Structures are given as C-alpha cells and as structure tokens.
Amino acid sequence: MVTVLLCAHNLLIRTGLRKVLEDDAYIHVAAETGSADEAVELARRHQPDVVFVELDMPRGEGLRIGRMLTGTGDRPAGVVFIAQSFDSTTALRGLLAGARAFLAKSDTPRQLVAAVHAVAGGYTVLPSAVTAALEPWAMLSTAFAAPGAADVFGLLTERELEVLRLMATGMSNAEIAEFLSLGEATVKSHVSRLLSKLGLRNRSQAVARAYGTGLMGVPARAAQ
Fold first, then answer.
1. Residue 169 needs a FRET pair 20 to 30 A away by CA distance; which of 24, 61, 148, 207 works?
2. Burial class of residue 144 (count of CB atoms within 10 Å of its CB; 0-12, 13-18, 19+)
3. What is 135-222's CATH number, 3.40.50.1260, 3.40.190.10, 3.40.50.2300, 3.40.630.10?
4. Average pLDDT value over all residues in the chain
5. pTM to 2 decimals?
C-alpha cells in the first residue's frame, strides 16, 4: 500500500486528487492540507511514501513544502509537484526543492496514479514538457563549462552555496529570503560575501560560474 499526503491551497484540487488516487486499491490518502506548516506535522505523523504538492500555491508555499518534506522523517517522502504548466525557472526551482515527479493539472487520472506508483518505487518522473523547459539550463551549463573550477566552491559555507543555487534559478534577494525564511538583509550579505570569495563582480557572473562548474548539474542531467 502506498501512503499519500495531499498538499494544495485549493480544496477542489485536494478533493479531486483524493478521489482519483483512492480509486486505486493500492493507494491510501492518509491526510490533506492547504498549509505548509501543517504539511510538515502531517508528514511526521503519517510518514507518507508520496506527497502531492500544488506548486502554484500562494507565496511560494508549494516550493517551501517540497523543500521541507524532502528532509522530514526517517525516510523522506517522494515529492510530486502538480501545476498548471512548467516554464524553465519553475521546473528548475521544483527540482532544487526536491521534486521526484512533475504533473500537469490537465493530466489524466491514469497518469496521476502511475506517477504515484513510480515515485513510491524509487523512480523519477520528468514529462517531456519539463525536460524541454530545462533544456536552456543544460545548454547554459555546457556553454560555461570550466574544468576544475568547481574546487573554488570549497570557500563557500553551506548557506552561501544554497543562496548561490537559488540565485541561479533566477530568484531575487526577496524571493530567496522568503524561500529560506531569512531576512532580506541577511541574504544580501550572503550574496556579497560569496561574490567576494569567488572573485566575481555581479550576480550574472555567479550564475554562469554555478552552471559552468557543475554546481547545478542535477537539472542539467535531467534535461538530457
């Protein structure tokens, strides 16, 4: 039996997902919520195999849920993001937040059920629309390749690396601050320090370095 947690701001979406998934005799929807904080508590309580997260939730809540739940419990759940559509930035942010699968709200019930079983079985589900959206990032990674340069990231703290990865998805300081639950001034300080440590002048150079040295290698591989 695959245990599922549903996280969506829209009650109609949660109700629809529950009906579709529970039509499968091997799927049990243990709980549902529209709150990021409650999602973490429910995940601890029910230890789900798969968590469905509405990526379009207000204030970036969907990404925050994904990021929190991939590190929750003795065995982190497989996060499935469902959204209206995926552009390159949204897909990349989803992967960085720990997504194991992406589904469109227009997908069929059969596709939803198949994705649950695939993720529960340890597989990653990247539809063609998502891999196509990630293609520009893969091309950028190749264009700025610089063998051996990745060693310089050893100068950065874990938090600075995290900020750099989020910068590379196109997030502003304000968005990074919200995503990491930090003050915007703190994020600005991290950005300033990492630029100084890397000997770079601006964010654009930092993003190019991140892609060119493989720091963003997971999305690039996913797009192949």
1. 148
2. middle
3. 3.40.50.2300
4. 80
5. 0.61
